[in-house]
Amino acid sequence: MAAITLVATATASIGIATPQAAAAAVRDPILFVHGWQGSASNWDYMWGRFLAAGYSTEELARFSYDTSQSNENIALEVKAQVDALRAKTGAAKVDIITHSMGGLNSRWYLKKLEGLSFVDDWVSIGGPNHGTEVAWGCLDDPTS
Fold this sequence. Notes:
- There is one protein chain.
- The protein has five helices and four strands.
- By secondary structure, it is an alpha/beta fold.
């Protein structure tokens, strides 16, 4: 036990990062973006998995938005969420994990709102990257 304490003390005193500290220092905070007619609560399970893996609630963000808006307008909300997460954590970049429509509005942010400068990794789960005919079935037509 004395040897472990000695190694830990020596490591700390000469500035060598432990594997846990090194991993925490290099990971980006994560923004979760839900899909069509979803909400921030769609990420509850994954949120819990990241917490169990050692992330803090300060490193994670999720939000709800009105999916009846255009992806261009929602991209402005994504930008605001990225800016807020970066400000809260002091991180230069964040990672974004999306589902479905969240992939479309976050891609607009990346491509049209200079998001590539502030996002390290982008993950899309089931995003319709080239559009989909199925989306026509999602229209809320008040005349029908």
